[in-house]
């Protein structure tokens, strides 16, 4: 065991995979600078900076994967996937079905996501639920360095397309690049356990579609991904002091969803509170309620999500994004029912 | 008609001093997130926007501040928006990358290339509702590889839309040298769509003004779109706090450490390839730093050199502009 930062863990696992499989190539905007260590070690043929042409280079990743490479394609932020949606929605996600299962697309789209550093609603979205809505796409959203590295390995090994989202409050290099810019005059609410932690000496894959139970609870189950997993843990500790036993489930992958772990936890607690930084309506939070109801499990349900366009202003942004306070308040309301 | 160099100079200086004040506020932590500067682009903003009239529209990119300052948007409203104030230009919702002024028909976006389609739409509305008006799109050379921009070139030609497409060519696409990721040359590319394409030194405000005049007149006279390629610099890097420009040794160490560790790592590219990669990174840093400290291509310095015989008038403008900006900052912070 050693200690590593969130972003370093992803790059480290990626480097391990690249060293063992020459079919893995990395391309995307600025990758020679953002992944300078990979650029130096593996050279420009395998770590290739792309023009600002998301539609073309994400589309090219689909073709490259179909023809034998295993691309890890980087989009500067998940928001910019908007420009390349066709490649994911109509091609990467459809190919296996269209080919009658004969042709698969082993590609990873890696993109920073999430808010909390005042960059405005076009650069701080989460979009994991929106992407997971599409059949055929796997969507991975780790919350700590060990999972980040292990899930990158599984994403690369997966035979279908994976969207791998790294939250910018966890990836300290991205937060420094986009948020602080080397300043000591700005502070962000960064969960320490998520940004740096123990990782294995040699990476092994963390299975896709397997949630992690971070805390058992008999009164209420808090379910989340990424940064808000840590807000949930904090909220659970606060709830404990008020006599409420709250469990925390980290989904780790949005799609495939670990329905079993979800249903098991909720059938025990009877209450589900989903904490989702992605948009509330028509997304992950509603999906979790549906899964539990379809399983015939009676439940009390609540959710803390982002409900509108994320404001630029830090103060408004804090009100719009999920927070520990909103989680505790909503959980206590659910307890009254 | 000749350009009024004094008026253009004043506009360029207003933009420069305004953005310098923004840098201070950003350093103090009063502005959050990314902050992309238009420093180095002032001659393009002033030389183009000087031709605009009521009813003309602007589609802007993530460096939208200079055109808005020159167009006459209230400086206090702009500053308050950057500060995230509820009474900022967009109620604190947008920030510097998402600036909207309906009364100036001006809209910005942080999605590279998106100024193209929006300008085409603004121009379509002008064709229907305000004949004689036009739309200007401002974007960088990085955007020239974005499909939506190239598609709007075609749309504007096919529909004969009154658009002036202004490419501010600073030779960078974020942290990538444009020439490494771009085929052909940009002027040919625009001409390939059947569009009149002009090339100009974007640090020379009079040259920009003359070229923009042709494009604006063509658009007003129902002659369709024009592409204006204006070469400029990016002295502040992609945005403030740009890692390649960091002064502190510590942040340099953070960057260099992992790179050096990768150099001898087992399995990977040949030593030659590894050294080539290191060379690429070194040249990116070298180019960034040179641009920061090179005065020669600073558009403001260039005008001053041309007018240095009239020092007292230059000083007077400098004083007036400094006062205007200071007042705006004081009000915005009060």
The strands making up the biggest β-sheet of chain A line up spatially as 3-2-4-5-7-6-12
Structural class of chain A: alpha/beta
Would you identify the regions of chain B where 5 or more consecutive residues have pLDDT less than 50? none
**Strand percent estimate of chain B:** 5-15%
Which word captures the global form of chain B?
Answer: globular
Tell me the quaternary state: heterodimer
3D shape of chain A: globular
User: Kindly state the mean pLDDT of chain A as a whole number?
Assistant: 97
| Class from helix and strand fractions of chain B | alpha/beta
What is the tally of helical segments of chain B?
A: 12
State the low-pLDDT regions of chain A, or none: none
Task: Please estimate the helix content of chain B.
Answer: 40-55%
Order of the strands making up the biggest sheet of chain B: 2-3-1-4-5-9-8
H and E string of chain A: EHEHHEHEHHEHEHEHHEEEHEEHEHEHH
* Helical residues, percent of chain A: 40-55%
């Amino acid at each position: 065991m050693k200690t590593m930062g969130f972003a370093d863990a992803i790059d480290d696992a990626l480097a391990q995979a690249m060293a063992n499989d020459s079919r893995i190539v990395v391309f995307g905007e600025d990758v020679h600078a953002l992944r300078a260590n990979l650029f130096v070690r593996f050279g420009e043929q395998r770590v290739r900076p792309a023009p600002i042409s998301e539609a073309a280079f994400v589309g090219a990743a689909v073709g490259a994967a179909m023809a034998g490479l295993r691309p890890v394609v980087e989009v500067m932020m998940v928001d910019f996937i908007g420009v390349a949606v066709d490649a994911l929605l109509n091609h990467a996600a459809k190919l296996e079905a269209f080919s009658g299962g004969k042709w698969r697309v082993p590609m990873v789209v890696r993109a920073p996501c999430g808010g909390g550093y005042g960059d405005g609603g076009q650069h701080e979205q989460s979009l994991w639920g929106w992407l997971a809505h599409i059949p055929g796409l796997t969507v991975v959203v780790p919350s700590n360095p060990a999972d980040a590295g292990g899930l990158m390995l599984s994403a690369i090994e997966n035979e279908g397309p994976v969207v791998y989202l790294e939250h910018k409050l966890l990836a300290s290099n991205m937060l420094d690049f986009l948020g602080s810019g080397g300043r000591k005059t700005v502070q962000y609410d960064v969960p320490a356990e998520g940004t740096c932690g123990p990782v294995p000496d040699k990476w092994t894959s963390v299975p896709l579609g397997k949630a992690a139970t971070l805390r058992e609870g008999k009164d209420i189950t808090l379910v989340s991904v990424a940064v808000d997993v840590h807000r949930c843990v904090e909220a659970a500790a606060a709830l404990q002091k008020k006599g409420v036993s709250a469990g925390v489930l980290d989904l780790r992958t949005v799609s495939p969803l670990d329905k079993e772990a979800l249903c098991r936890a909720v059938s025990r607690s009877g209450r589900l509170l989903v904490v989702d930084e992605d948009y509330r309506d028509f997304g992950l939070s509603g999906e979790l309620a549906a899964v539990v109801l379809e399983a015939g499990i009676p439940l009390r349900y609540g959710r803390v999500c982002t409900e509108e366009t994320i404001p630029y202003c830090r103060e408004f942004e804090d009100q719009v994004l999920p927070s520990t306070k909103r989680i505790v308040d909503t959980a206590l309301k659910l307890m009254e029912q | 008609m000749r350009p009024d160099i004094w008026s253009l100079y004043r506009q360029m200086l207003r933009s420069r001093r305004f953005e310098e004040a923004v840098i201070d506020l950003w350093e103090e932590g009063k502005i959050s997130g990314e902050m992309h500067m238009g420093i180095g682009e002032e001659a393009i903003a002033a030389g183009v926007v000087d031709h605009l009239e009521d009813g003309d529209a602007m589609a802007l990119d993530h460096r939208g501040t200079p055109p808005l300052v020159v167009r006459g948007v209230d400086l206090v409203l702009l500053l308050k928006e950057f500060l995230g104030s509820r009474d900022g230009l967009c109620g604190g919702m947008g920030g510097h990358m998402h600036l909207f002024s309906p009364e100036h028909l001006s809209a910005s976006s942080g999605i590279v290339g998106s100024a193209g389609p929006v300008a085409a739409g603004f121009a379509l509305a002008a064709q229907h509702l305000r004949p004689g008006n036009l739309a200007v799109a401002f974007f960088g050379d990085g955007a020239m590889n974005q499909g939506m921009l190239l598609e709007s070139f075609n749309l504007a030609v096919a529909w004969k839309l009154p658009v002036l497409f202004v490419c501010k060519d600073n030779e960078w696409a974020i942290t990538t040298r444009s020439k490494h990721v771009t085929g052909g040359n940009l002027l040919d590319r625009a001409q390939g769509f059947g569009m009149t394409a002009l090339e100009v030194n974007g640090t020379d405000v009079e040259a920009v003004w003359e070229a923009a005049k042709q494009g604006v007149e063509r658009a007003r006279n129902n002659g369709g779109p024009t592409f204006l390629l204006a070469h400029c610099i990016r002295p502040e890097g992609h945005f403030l706090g740009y890692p390649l420009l960091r002064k502190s040794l510590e942040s340099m160490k953070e960057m260099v450490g992992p790179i050096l560790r990768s150099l001898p790592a087992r399995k990977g590219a040949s030593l030659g390839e590894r050294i080539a990669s290191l060379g690429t990174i070194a040249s990116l840093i070298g180019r960034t730093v040179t641009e920061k400290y090179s005065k020669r291509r600073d558009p403001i310095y260039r005008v001053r050199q041309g007018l240095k015989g009239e020092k007292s008038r230059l000083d007077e403008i400098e004083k007036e502009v400094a006062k205007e900006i200071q007042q705006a900052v004081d009000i915005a912070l009060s």
